[in-house]
Amino acid sequence: MTGVRGQGAGGRGQGAGGRGQGAGGRRLRPVARPASQEGGRIERPGTPAGAETDELINLCYVGEAGGIEEGLAHRSGIPFRAVTTGQIRGRAPWIVARNLARMGQGAAQCAALLREFRPDVVFVTGGYVAAPVAWAAWRQRIPVLIYLPDLTPGLAIRVVSRLAARVAVSFPEVTPYFPGKAVVTGYPVRPELLTIDRASARAALQLREDRPTLLVFGGSRGARSINQAVVAGLPTLLAHCQIVHISGSLDWEWVSRAAAELPETLQRWYHPDSYLHEEMVQALAAADLVVARAGASVLGEFPAVGLPSILVPYPFAGQHQDANAAYLADRGAAVVVADSDLPGRLSSVVVELLGAPERLAEMRQAARALARPDAAISIARELRELAGC
Fold first, then answer.
1. Nearest to 156, CA basis, from 6, 31, 35
2. Per residue in 259-314, pLDDT tens?
3. Are 165 and 181 in contact (CB under 8 A)?
4. Residue 125 near residue 48 (C-beta atoms within 8 A)
5. pTM of the model
6. Domains of the chain and CATH, by start
7. N or C: which end of the chain has fewer CB within 10 A?
8. How many other C-beta atoms can be found within 10 angstroms of the C-beta atom of residue 326?
């Protein structure tokens, strides 16, 4: 959950001597939302958990202790508060019972936090932190805005939407899930993604401008099946392109070892890393093609930079990723490869696409047609309206 206070005339302003209350102004305090915890989802500044903060100020981000969202919030300069929660769907009965108790504890923690922070609006993006936050806000009559990045709502969003004043969605196709509450905003991304050019991005990453660039990543922790297929195919792939490979922390040791064992003639084209933070903007802009899971961020980030993609849906993501991948593929912006087909297909599909510049150009144009560059502003506008500012 995210807490925000407005700035400018009639709001909370920054003066020469520091922070002060505007004359006769009312403070805007949307509460920072929980981060999504769905498999394969990348959470970093540049996703909905960070993009609209450029339009809002004075946030309080609520999530799980030790989760990736905690580090991301601190890195972005957003105060973070941890609450207790737990997953329910797909768990054994005794785990469900335990996690329901944890959610009750989390709801009490959220209620205390809301009384302390006194937000004007609560912003929720999903995951199992969403339920206790939204319930506590509803009990205290604080309006809730949900943002659904995916094409299909998960259990938490379906339940929490009953407590929400509005549900912001990325695409019109999602509105039937939330009759009378849905508003189409698009998927918010960092402004840098909308303005960065390929030449400067490649220069920042020390990539050759005259060689095709393949970006590979599988989420914040990586995707072993993708990593294995890419490393196995390096001799073939590196003959056609330079590769930025983000392996995730779990596979970094053996991926870096494989990189060191490559012939020197191939090593110069291979750029592995365990994780990218701010450099991810440059990596997305520098690429001609990306291989990735099909978490919700692909619906916003890839269109923003017009990036053609090979999407490999995570098989255990409750079909959310299948829907995301199909959406881009049906519109000509992506090719879908099943996780089980990676060993035999990935290298050949990459080589085929990189060898077909006209098709890549068509995919790039199809991706750009799906972009909503004003999405962050639209979400900020909804938050301000619900807060009465």
1. 35
2. 999 999 999 999 999 999 889 999 999 999 999 999 999 999 999 999 999 999 99
3. yes
4. yes
5. 0.80
6. 12-187+373-387 (3.40.50.2000), 193-368 (3.40.50.2000)
7. C
8. 17
